[in-house]
Amino acid sequence: MLIGAAMMPHGNPVLKPEDEGTRKLAEALKEIGEEFSKAEAYVIISPHNIRMSEALGVIMAENLISWLGFGEVQLPGEYKTEKELAREIYQRAKANGLPVVDINFASLSGEYSRFPLTWGELIPLHFLEKRPVVLLTPARKVSRATLVEFGEVVGEVLEEYDKKVAFIASADHAHAHGNGPYGYAPEAKEYDELVMRIIQENRLEKLLEIPDELISKALPDSYWQLLVLYGVLKKVPMKVKLAEYACPSYFGMGAALFVRE
Amino acid sequence: MLIGAAMMPHGNPVLKPEDEGTRKLAEALKEIGEEFSKAEAYVIISPHNIRMSEALGVIMAENLISWLGFGEVQLPGEYKTEKELAREIYQRAKANGLPVVDINFASLSGEYSRFPLTWGELIPLHFLEKRPVVLLTPARKVSRATLVEFGEVVGEVLEEYDKKVAFIASADHAHAHGNGPYGYAPEAKEYDELVMRIIQENRLEKLLEIPDELISKALPDSYWQLLVLYGVLKKVPMKVKLAEYACPSYFGMGAALFVRE
Protein backbone atom coordinates (compact mmCIF):
# COMPACT_ATOMS: atom_id res chain seq x y z
CA MET A 1 0.00 0.00 0.00
CA LEU A 2 1.16 3.50 -0.83
CA ILE A 3 1.30 5.50 2.41
CA GLY A 4 2.61 8.77 0.99
CA ALA A 5 4.57 10.54 -1.70
CA ALA A 6 7.15 13.27 -1.61
CA MET A 7 9.27 15.57 -3.68
CA MET A 8 12.71 15.86 -2.09
CA PRO A 9 15.73 17.90 -3.20
CA HIS A 10 19.22 16.47 -3.63
CA GLY A 11 21.36 19.62 -3.31
CA ASN A 12 24.16 19.71 -0.74
CA PRO A 13 22.84 22.92 0.95
CA VAL A 14 20.05 21.01 2.75
CA LEU A 15 22.72 19.02 4.59
CA LYS A 16 24.18 22.17 6.18
CA PRO A 17 21.61 24.96 5.83
CA GLU A 18 23.16 28.40 6.01
CA ASP A 19 20.05 30.56 5.78
CA GLU A 20 16.56 30.60 7.22
CA GLY A 21 14.84 29.38 4.02
CA THR A 22 17.12 26.39 3.64
CA ARG A 23 16.75 25.60 7.36
CA LYS A 24 12.98 25.48 6.93
CA LEU A 25 13.44 23.28 3.88
CA ALA A 26 15.66 20.88 5.86
CA GLU A 27 13.04 20.84 8.64
CA ALA A 28 10.43 19.87 6.06
CA LEU A 29 12.67 17.02 4.91
CA LYS A 30 12.91 15.77 8.49
CA GLU A 31 9.13 15.90 8.72
CA ILE A 32 8.92 13.80 5.55
CA GLY A 33 11.34 11.37 7.20
CA GLU A 34 9.09 11.12 10.26
CA GLU A 35 5.99 10.58 8.15
CA PHE A 36 7.74 7.93 6.07
CA SER A 37 9.10 6.09 9.11
CA LYS A 38 5.82 4.17 8.81
CA ALA A 39 6.92 2.84 5.43
CA GLU A 40 8.52 -0.59 5.00
CA ALA A 41 10.13 0.29 1.66
CA TYR A 42 10.75 3.33 -0.53
CA VAL A 43 10.50 3.79 -4.26
CA ILE A 44 12.69 6.66 -5.38
CA ILE A 45 13.06 8.10 -8.86
CA SER A 46 16.31 9.97 -9.38
CA PRO A 47 17.65 12.14 -12.21
CA HIS A 48 21.31 11.54 -11.21
CA ASN A 49 21.67 7.82 -11.53
CA ILE A 50 21.34 5.94 -14.86
CA ARG A 51 20.41 8.40 -17.60
CA MET A 52 18.95 6.91 -20.73
CA SER A 53 17.47 9.14 -23.43
CA GLU A 54 14.47 7.07 -24.28
CA ALA A 55 14.10 4.33 -21.70
CA LEU A 56 12.84 4.29 -18.13
CA GLY A 57 14.96 2.20 -15.78
CA VAL A 58 14.17 -0.11 -12.88
CA ILE A 59 17.31 -1.01 -10.94
CA MET A 60 17.25 -4.72 -10.07
CA ALA A 61 20.70 -5.00 -8.44
CA GLU A 62 20.44 -6.37 -4.89
CA ASN A 63 22.77 -3.93 -3.17
CA LEU A 64 22.75 -0.16 -3.64
CA ILE A 65 26.05 1.37 -2.57
CA SER A 66 27.21 4.98 -2.12
CA TRP A 67 29.62 5.91 -4.93
CA LEU A 68 29.39 9.48 -6.11
CA GLY A 69 28.84 12.69 -4.17
CA PHE A 70 28.64 16.21 -5.53
CA GLY A 71 31.54 18.53 -4.76
CA GLU A 72 33.36 17.29 -1.68
CA VAL A 73 30.23 15.94 -0.03
CA GLN A 74 30.05 12.15 -0.06
CA LEU A 75 27.38 10.58 2.13
CA PRO A 76 27.92 6.93 3.00
CA GLY A 77 25.08 4.48 2.50
CA GLU A 78 24.23 0.90 1.65
CA TYR A 79 20.68 -0.16 0.89
CA LYS A 80 19.01 -3.37 -0.14
CA THR A 81 16.76 -3.38 -3.17
CA GLU A 82 13.17 -4.48 -2.57
CA LYS A 83 13.56 -6.93 -5.44
CA GLU A 84 10.05 -8.33 -5.61
CA LEU A 85 8.61 -4.83 -5.88
CA ALA A 86 11.21 -3.79 -8.47
CA ARG A 87 10.36 -6.83 -10.58
CA GLU A 88 6.64 -6.13 -10.35
CA ILE A 89 7.10 -2.50 -11.45
CA TYR A 90 9.29 -3.57 -14.37
CA GLN A 91 6.94 -6.30 -15.50
CA ARG A 92 3.80 -4.20 -15.18
CA ALA A 93 5.37 -1.27 -17.04
CA LYS A 94 6.54 -3.61 -19.79
CA ALA A 95 3.12 -5.26 -20.02
CA ASN A 96 1.68 -1.76 -20.47
CA GLY A 97 3.94 -1.21 -23.45
CA LEU A 98 6.12 1.39 -21.75
CA PRO A 99 9.77 1.80 -22.80
CA VAL A 100 11.27 0.31 -19.65
CA VAL A 101 14.41 -1.73 -19.00
CA ASP A 102 15.47 -3.82 -16.00
CA ILE A 103 18.98 -2.95 -14.88
CA ASN A 104 21.15 -5.31 -12.93
CA PHE A 105 24.92 -5.02 -12.57
CA ALA A 106 27.91 -7.37 -12.56
CA SER A 107 26.00 -10.46 -11.31
CA LEU A 108 22.31 -11.26 -11.38
CA SER A 109 22.16 -11.91 -7.62
CA GLY A 110 24.25 -12.10 -4.49
CA GLU A 111 26.96 -9.81 -3.17
CA TYR A 112 28.24 -8.87 -6.63
CA SER A 113 24.82 -7.67 -7.73
CA ARG A 114 25.54 -4.07 -6.74
CA PHE A 115 24.65 -0.65 -8.02
CA PRO A 116 26.21 2.75 -7.37
CA LEU A 117 24.29 5.56 -5.70
CA THR A 118 24.90 9.28 -6.17
CA TRP A 119 23.92 12.47 -4.40
CA GLY A 120 20.63 12.22 -6.30
CA GLU A 121 19.55 9.31 -4.10
CA LEU A 122 21.82 9.64 -1.05
CA ILE A 123 20.67 13.11 -0.03
CA PRO A 124 16.92 12.33 0.02
CA LEU A 125 17.64 8.96 1.68
CA HIS A 126 19.74 10.74 4.33
CA PHE A 127 16.53 12.24 5.70
CA LEU A 128 14.70 8.91 5.80
CA GLU A 129 15.03 5.95 8.12
CA LYS A 130 16.82 3.07 6.47
CA ARG A 131 14.55 0.79 4.46
CA PRO A 132 14.85 -1.36 1.34
CA VAL A 133 14.58 0.72 -1.79
CA VAL A 134 13.45 0.47 -5.39
CA LEU A 135 15.42 2.87 -7.57
CA LEU A 136 13.80 4.13 -10.76
CA THR A 137 15.24 6.41 -13.43
CA PRO A 138 13.33 8.83 -15.67
CA ALA A 139 14.07 9.71 -19.30
CA ARG A 140 13.93 13.09 -20.98
CA LYS A 141 13.24 12.03 -24.53
CA VAL A 142 10.09 10.05 -23.94
CA SER A 143 6.73 11.78 -24.16
CA ARG A 144 5.14 13.52 -21.22
CA ALA A 145 2.26 11.05 -21.49
CA THR A 146 4.70 8.14 -21.16
CA LEU A 147 6.13 9.55 -17.93
CA VAL A 148 2.65 10.08 -16.46
CA GLU A 149 1.61 6.60 -17.52
CA PHE A 150 4.72 5.13 -15.91
CA GLY A 151 3.73 6.93 -12.70
CA GLU A 152 0.25 5.46 -12.93
CA VAL A 153 1.72 1.97 -13.25
CA VAL A 154 4.00 2.63 -10.27
CA GLY A 155 1.07 3.96 -8.23
CA GLU A 156 -1.02 0.93 -9.09
CA VAL A 157 1.73 -1.54 -8.21
CA LEU A 158 2.55 0.22 -4.93
CA GLU A 159 -1.09 0.38 -3.95
CA GLU A 160 -1.44 -3.38 -4.51
CA TYR A 161 1.82 -4.27 -2.75
CA ASP A 162 1.42 -5.98 0.60
CA LYS A 163 3.95 -3.78 2.39
CA LYS A 164 3.66 -0.07 3.18
CA VAL A 165 5.58 1.94 0.61
CA ALA A 166 6.42 5.64 0.16
CA PHE A 167 7.20 7.16 -3.24
CA ILE A 168 9.87 9.82 -3.54
CA ALA A 169 10.66 12.03 -6.52
CA SER A 170 14.24 13.27 -6.12
CA ALA A 171 14.13 16.65 -7.78
CA ASP A 172 15.99 19.94 -7.85
CA HIS A 173 14.39 22.77 -9.79
CA ALA A 174 15.79 25.38 -12.16
CA HIS A 175 19.59 25.65 -12.36
CA ALA A 176 19.72 29.01 -14.12
CA HIS A 177 19.20 31.27 -11.10
CA GLY A 178 22.62 32.83 -11.73
CA ASN A 179 26.02 32.76 -10.00
CA GLY A 180 26.51 29.16 -11.07
CA PRO A 181 27.82 27.04 -13.94
CA TYR A 182 24.58 27.44 -15.92
CA GLY A 183 24.35 31.23 -15.98
CA TYR A 184 21.23 33.32 -15.44
CA ALA A 185 17.84 33.09 -17.08
CA PRO A 186 14.69 34.82 -15.76
CA GLU A 187 12.81 31.62 -16.61
CA ALA A 188 14.46 29.91 -13.64
CA LYS A 189 12.41 31.90 -11.11
CA GLU A 190 9.32 31.61 -13.31
CA TYR A 191 9.62 27.81 -13.53
CA ASP A 192 10.27 27.35 -9.81
CA GLU A 193 7.37 29.59 -8.76
CA LEU A 194 5.04 27.90 -11.17
CA VAL A 195 6.00 24.39 -10.08
CA MET A 196 5.76 25.21 -6.38
CA ARG A 197 2.33 26.81 -6.92
CA ILE A 198 1.14 23.75 -8.86
CA ILE A 199 2.30 21.56 -5.97
CA GLN A 200 0.83 23.74 -3.22
CA GLU A 201 -2.49 23.80 -5.04
CA ASN A 202 -2.20 20.04 -5.63
CA ARG A 203 -3.03 20.43 -9.28
CA LEU A 204 -0.21 18.46 -10.82
CA GLU A 205 -2.13 18.07 -14.08
CA LYS A 206 -1.04 21.67 -14.70
CA LEU A 207 2.53 20.40 -15.15
CA LEU A 208 1.45 19.25 -18.60
CA GLU A 209 0.81 22.87 -19.60
CA ILE A 210 4.38 24.05 -18.95
CA PRO A 211 5.94 24.94 -22.30
CA ASP A 212 9.07 23.12 -23.46
CA GLU A 213 10.79 26.45 -23.92
CA LEU A 214 10.34 27.46 -20.29
CA ILE A 215 11.76 24.12 -19.19
CA SER A 216 14.74 24.28 -21.52
CA LYS A 217 15.62 27.81 -20.40
CA ALA A 218 15.10 27.21 -16.67
CA LEU A 219 17.23 24.01 -16.70
CA PRO A 220 15.44 22.04 -14.00
CA ASP A 221 16.28 18.51 -12.80
CA SER A 222 12.71 18.05 -11.69
CA TYR A 223 10.19 18.13 -14.50
CA TRP A 224 10.36 14.49 -15.62
CA GLN A 225 10.24 12.99 -12.14
CA LEU A 226 7.33 15.31 -11.27
CA LEU A 227 5.36 13.92 -14.21
CA VAL A 228 5.93 10.44 -12.77
CA LEU A 229 4.83 11.74 -9.34
CA TYR A 230 1.73 13.14 -11.02
CA GLY A 231 0.99 9.69 -12.45
CA VAL A 232 1.35 8.13 -9.01
CA LEU A 233 -1.04 10.71 -7.52
CA LYS A 234 -3.51 10.20 -10.36
CA LYS A 235 -3.81 6.57 -9.28
CA VAL A 236 -3.80 7.30 -5.54
CA PRO A 237 -5.03 10.84 -4.87
CA MET A 238 -3.54 12.45 -1.78
CA LYS A 239 -3.53 15.80 -0.03
CA VAL A 240 -0.55 18.15 0.34
CA LYS A 241 0.69 18.13 3.93
CA LEU A 242 3.62 20.46 3.45
CA ALA A 243 5.51 22.35 0.76
CA GLU A 244 8.72 24.33 1.20
CA TYR A 245 11.12 26.02 -1.19
CA ALA A 246 14.57 27.60 -0.97
CA CYS A 247 17.15 28.83 -3.44
CA PRO A 248 20.38 29.41 -1.51
CA SER A 249 22.63 29.12 -4.57
CA TYR A 250 22.19 28.78 -8.35
CA PHE A 251 19.49 26.10 -8.22
CA GLY A 252 16.08 25.92 -6.64
CA MET A 253 15.12 23.21 -4.16
CA GLY A 254 11.65 22.25 -3.06
CA ALA A 255 10.13 19.74 -0.69
CA ALA A 256 6.55 18.49 -0.67
CA LEU A 257 4.77 15.81 1.27
CA PHE A 258 1.58 14.16 0.06
CA VAL A 259 -0.38 11.94 2.44
CA ARG A 260 -3.58 9.97 2.05
CA GLU A 261 -6.80 11.84 2.57
CA MET B 1 39.09 1.11 -39.14
CA LEU B 2 38.87 -2.18 -37.30
CA ILE B 3 42.41 -3.49 -36.82
CA GLY B 4 41.59 -6.67 -34.90
CA ALA B 5 39.24 -8.50 -32.61
CA ALA B 6 39.77 -10.64 -29.56
CA MET B 7 38.11 -12.84 -27.03
CA MET B 8 39.65 -12.20 -23.61
CA PRO B 9 38.85 -13.84 -20.27
CA HIS B 10 38.12 -11.90 -17.08
CA GLY B 11 38.95 -14.47 -14.41
CA ASN B 12 41.42 -13.57 -11.67
CA PRO B 13 43.70 -16.60 -12.40
CA VAL B 14 45.18 -14.93 -15.51
CA LEU B 15 46.56 -12.17 -13.29
CA LYS B 16 48.68 -14.66 -11.29
CA PRO B 17 48.89 -17.87 -13.28
CA GLU B 18 49.67 -20.90 -11.13
CA ASP B 19 49.91 -23.60 -13.76
CA GLU B 20 51.39 -24.02 -17.21
CA GLY B 21 48.09 -23.76 -19.09
CA THR B 22 47.11 -20.50 -17.41
CA ARG B 23 50.62 -19.12 -17.95
CA LYS B 24 50.25 -19.79 -21.68
CA LEU B 25 46.86 -18.13 -21.60
CA ALA B 26 48.32 -15.05 -19.91
CA GLU B 27 51.10 -14.98 -22.52
CA ALA B 28 48.43 -15.01 -25.23
CA LEU B 29 46.74 -12.05 -23.53
CA LYS B 30 50.02 -10.14 -23.57
CA GLU B 31 50.34 -10.93 -27.27
CA ILE B 32 46.86 -9.51 -27.82
CA GLY B 33 48.00 -6.42 -25.92
CA GLU B 34 51.00 -6.03 -28.23
CA GLU B 35 48.89 -6.47 -31.36
CA PHE B 36 46.32 -3.97 -30.09
CA SER B 37 48.95 -1.39 -29.13
CA LYS B 38 48.37 -0.19 -32.72
CA ALA B 39 44.77 0.67 -31.83
CA GLU B 40 43.68 4.19 -30.89
CA ALA B 41 40.54 3.03 -29.11
CA TYR B 42 38.93 -0.18 -27.90
CA VAL B 43 35.36 -1.36 -28.01
CA ILE B 44 34.72 -3.93 -25.31
CA ILE B 45 31.58 -5.91 -24.64
CA SER B 46 31.33 -7.20 -21.08
CA PRO B 47 28.92 -9.57 -19.34
CA HIS B 48 29.72 -8.13 -15.88
CA ASN B 49 28.69 -4.53 -16.19
CA ILE B 50 25.10 -3.40 -16.83
CA ARG B 51 22.88 -6.44 -17.25
CA MET B 52 19.55 -5.85 -18.93
CA SER B 53 17.33 -8.78 -19.93
CA GLU B 54 16.19 -7.51 -23.26
CA ALA B 55 18.23 -4.45 -24.17
CA LEU B 56 21.76 -3.98 -25.45
CA GLY B 57 23.64 -1.14 -23.79
CA VAL B 58 26.07 1.48 -25.03
CA ILE B 59 27.75 3.29 -22.14
CA MET B 60 27.92 7.01 -22.90
CA ALA B 61 29.40 8.21 -19.57
CA GLU B 62 32.64 10.15 -20.13
CA ASN B 63 34.72 8.55 -17.40
CA LEU B 64 34.95 4.82 -16.72
CA ILE B 65 36.21 4.14 -13.20
CA SER B 66 37.30 0.98 -11.40
CA TRP B 67 34.66 -0.01 -8.84
CA LEU B 68 34.15 -3.71 -8.37
CA GLY B 69 36.66 -6.56 -8.32
CA PHE B 70 35.98 -10.25 -7.86
CA GLY B 71 37.08 -11.78 -4.59
CA GLU B 72 39.84 -9.69 -3.07
CA VAL B 73 41.29 -8.67 -6.42
CA GLN B 74 40.57 -5.05 -7.31
CA LEU B 75 42.50 -3.63 -10.24
CA PRO B 76 42.67 0.15 -10.40
CA GLY B 77 41.79 1.91 -13.63
CA GLU B 78 40.33 5.06 -15.13
CA TYR B 79 39.47 5.28 -18.80
CA LYS B 80 37.88 7.88 -21.04
CA THR B 81 34.95 6.92 -23.21
CA GLU B 82 35.44 7.42 -26.96
CA LYS B 83 32.16 9.33 -27.01
CA GLU B 84 31.81 10.00 -30.71
CA LEU B 85 32.21 6.30 -31.47
CA ALA B 86 29.82 5.30 -28.69
CA ARG B 87 27.20 7.69 -30.06
CA GLU B 88 27.63 6.36 -33.59
CA ILE B 89 27.21 2.74 -32.44
CA TYR B 90 24.09 3.65 -30.46
CA GLN B 91 22.54 5.64 -33.25
CA ARG B 92 23.30 3.09 -35.96
CA ALA B 93 21.99 0.21 -33.85
CA LYS B 94 18.83 2.16 -33.09
CA ALA B 95 18.37 3.08 -36.76
CA ASN B 96 18.61 -0.65 -37.52
CA GLY B 97 15.72 -1.29 -35.17
CA LEU B 98 17.82 -3.09 -32.56
CA PRO B 99 16.78 -2.99 -28.88
CA VAL B 100 19.57 -0.71 -27.72
CA VAL B 101 19.77 1.96 -25.02
CA ASP B 102 22.31 4.71 -24.40
CA ILE B 103 23.47 4.73 -20.80
CA ASN B 104 24.92 7.77 -19.14
CA PHE B 105 25.22 8.26 -15.38
CA ALA B 106 24.76 11.09 -12.88
CA SER B 107 25.46 13.94 -15.34
CA LEU B 108 25.32 14.03 -19.12
CA SER B 109 28.89 15.31 -19.44
CA GLY B 110 31.90 16.46 -17.46
CA GLU B 111 33.55 15.00 -14.38
CA TYR B 112 30.29 13.67 -12.90
CA SER B 113 29.50 11.69 -16.02
CA ARG B 114 31.12 8.52 -14.66
CA PHE B 115 30.52 4.83 -14.89
CA PRO B 116 31.75 1.96 -12.74
CA LEU B 117 33.95 -0.81 -14.12
CA THR B 118 34.16 -4.36 -12.81
CA TRP B 119 36.52 -7.31 -13.21
CA GLY B 120 34.67 -8.02 -16.47
CA GLU B 121 36.33 -5.01 -18.09
CA LEU B 122 39.32 -4.34 -15.84
CA ILE B 123 40.99 -7.73 -16.34
CA PRO B 124 40.98 -7.63 -20.16
CA LEU B 125 41.98 -3.94 -20.11
CA HIS B 126 44.85 -4.79 -17.74
CA PHE B 127 46.58 -6.58 -20.65
CA LEU B 128 46.09 -3.67 -23.06
CA GLU B 129 47.82 -0.33 -23.32
CA LYS B 130 45.63 2.48 -22.08
CA ARG B 131 43.29 3.89 -24.71
CA PRO B 132 39.82 5.44 -24.77
CA VAL B 133 37.12 2.80 -24.58
CA VAL B 134 33.55 2.18 -25.70
CA LEU B 135 31.82 -0.18 -23.30
CA LEU B 136 28.94 -2.29 -24.63
CA THR B 137 26.72 -4.70 -22.75
CA PRO B 138 25.00 -7.80 -24.14
CA ALA B 139 21.58 -9.19 -23.22
CA ARG B 140 20.56 -12.80 -22.73
CA LYS B 141 16.89 -12.57 -23.54
CA VAL B 142 17.17 -11.12 -27.01
CA SER B 143 17.33 -13.47 -29.99
CA ARG B 144 20.59 -14.88 -31.27
CA ALA B 145 19.94 -13.08 -34.55
CA THR B 146 19.68 -9.76 -32.70
CA LEU B 147 23.08 -10.27 -31.07
CA VAL B 148 24.68 -11.14 -34.41
CA GLU B 149 23.04 -8.17 -36.06
CA PHE B 150 24.29 -5.88 -33.29
CA GLY B 151 27.79 -7.21 -33.99
CA GLU B 152 27.37 -6.47 -37.67
CA VAL B 153 26.38 -2.90 -36.87
CA VAL B 154 29.37 -2.55 -34.55
CA GLY B 155 31.70 -4.01 -37.20
CA GLU B 156 30.34 -1.63 -39.81
CA VAL B 157 30.69 1.43 -37.57
CA LEU B 158 34.22 0.48 -36.47
CA GLU B 159 35.29 -0.17 -40.05
CA GLU B 160 34.06 3.29 -41.08
CA TYR B 161 35.55 5.07 -38.07
CA ASP B 162 38.53 7.26 -38.82
CA LYS B 163 40.65 5.94 -35.95
CA LYS B 164 42.11 2.46 -35.55
CA VAL B 165 39.92 0.40 -33.25
CA ALA B 166 40.13 -3.09 -31.74
CA PHE B 167 37.06 -5.05 -30.65
CA ILE B 168 37.18 -7.18 -27.50
CA ALA B 169 34.64 -9.71 -26.28
CA SER B 170 35.19 -10.17 -22.54
CA ALA B 171 34.16 -13.77 -22.00
CA ASP B 172 34.68 -16.62 -19.59
CA HIS B 173 33.31 -19.99 -20.60
CA ALA B 174 31.43 -22.68 -18.70
CA HIS B 175 31.22 -22.28 -14.92
CA ALA B 176 30.08 -25.84 -14.15
CA HIS B 177 33.47 -27.56 -14.27
CA GLY B 178 33.06 -28.52 -10.62
CA ASN B 179 34.67 -27.51 -7.31
CA GLY B 180 32.96 -24.15 -7.49
CA PRO B 181 29.73 -22.38 -6.58
CA TYR B 182 27.93 -23.73 -9.66
CA GLY B 183 28.57 -27.46 -9.17
CA TYR B 184 29.53 -29.96 -11.84
CA ALA B 185 27.93 -30.65 -15.20
CA PRO B 186 29.63 -32.66 -17.97
CA GLU B 187 28.25 -30.09 -20.41
CA ALA B 188 30.83 -27.56 -19.16
CA LYS B 189 33.73 -29.42 -20.82
CA GLU B 190 31.59 -30.11 -23.87
CA TYR B 191 30.68 -26.44 -24.31
CA ASP B 192 34.22 -25.18 -23.80
CA GLU B 193 35.74 -27.69 -26.24
CA LEU B 194 33.10 -26.92 -28.83
CA VAL B 195 33.50 -23.15 -28.55
CA MET B 196 37.30 -23.30 -28.68
CA ARG B 197 37.12 -25.60 -31.73
CA ILE B 198 34.70 -23.21 -33.45
CA ILE B 199 37.12 -20.36 -32.76
CA GLN B 200 40.27 -22.23 -33.83
CA GLU B 201 38.55 -23.23 -37.07
CA ASN B 202 37.28 -19.66 -37.48
CA ARG B 203 33.76 -20.87 -38.15
CA LEU B 204 31.83 -18.72 -35.74
CA GLU B 205 28.60 -19.30 -37.67
CA LYS B 206 28.62 -22.69 -35.91
CA LEU B 207 27.86 -20.88 -32.63
CA LEU B 208 24.29 -20.61 -33.86
CA GLU B 209 23.97 -24.40 -33.80
CA ILE B 210 24.77 -24.76 -30.10
CA PRO B 211 21.60 -25.95 -28.36
CA ASP B 212 20.06 -23.85 -25.60
CA GLU B 213 20.17 -26.81 -23.28
CA LEU B 214 23.93 -27.21 -23.58
CA ILE B 215 24.38 -23.53 -22.82
CA SER B 216 22.04 -23.55 -19.84
CA LYS B 217 23.77 -26.59 -18.32
CA ALA B 218 27.33 -25.41 -18.99
CA LEU B 219 26.68 -21.95 -17.49
CA PRO B 220 29.02 -19.86 -19.64
CA ASP B 221 29.54 -16.09 -19.49
CA SER B 222 30.61 -16.09 -23.11
CA TYR B 223 27.92 -17.15 -25.52
CA TRP B 224 26.16 -13.83 -26.03
CA GLN B 225 29.31 -11.76 -26.47
CA LEU B 226 30.64 -14.37 -28.91
CA LEU B 227 27.55 -13.93 -31.07
CA VAL B 228 28.32 -10.21 -31.18
CA LEU B 229 31.95 -11.02 -32.05
CA TYR B 230 30.62 -13.27 -34.82
CA GLY B 231 28.60 -10.35 -36.18
CA VAL B 232 31.69 -8.13 -36.15
CA LEU B 233 33.68 -10.79 -38.03
CA LYS B 234 30.85 -11.29 -40.51
CA LYS B 235 31.27 -7.64 -41.51
CA VAL B 236 35.07 -7.65 -41.39
CA PRO B 237 36.41 -11.17 -41.97
CA MET B 238 39.71 -11.88 -40.23
CA LYS B 239 42.01 -14.80 -39.62
CA VAL B 240 42.74 -16.43 -36.27
CA LYS B 241 46.23 -15.54 -35.10
CA LEU B 242 46.11 -17.32 -31.78
CA ALA B 243 43.78 -19.27 -29.53
CA GLU B 244 44.50 -20.52 -26.01
CA TYR B 245 42.41 -22.13 -23.30
CA ALA B 246 42.85 -22.98 -19.64
CA CYS B 247 40.60 -24.14 -16.85
CA PRO B 248 42.53 -23.77 -13.59
CA SER B 249 39.41 -23.62 -11.39
CA TYR B 250 35.66 -24.10 -11.84
CA PHE B 251 35.33 -21.98 -14.98
CA GLY B 252 36.95 -22.15 -18.39
CA MET B 253 38.89 -19.24 -19.87
CA GLY B 254 39.89 -18.75 -23.46
CA ALA B 255 41.78 -16.16 -25.46
CA ALA B 256 41.65 -15.62 -29.20
CA LEU B 257 43.11 -13.00 -31.48
CA PHE B 258 41.70 -12.21 -34.90
CA VAL B 259 43.68 -10.01 -37.28
CA ARG B 260 42.98 -8.78 -40.79
CA GLU B 261 43.92 -11.11 -43.62
UniProtKB/TrEMBL annotation, chains A, B:
Stored Pfam families: LigB
Record has Cell membrane as a keyword: no
The organism's place on the tree of life at top rank: Archaea
Domain Extradiol ring-cleavage dioxygenase class III enzyme subunit B: 5-256
Protein name: Extradiol dioxygenase
Keywords of this entry: Dioxygenase, Oxidoreductase
InterPro entries noted in UniProt: Xdiol_dOase_suB
GO function term, MF aspect, one: oxidoreductase activity, acting on single donors with incorporation of molecular oxygen, incorporation of two atoms of oxygen
Taxonomic lineage: Archaea, Methanobacteriati, Methanobacteriota, Thermococci, Thermococcales
Coiled-coil residue windows: none
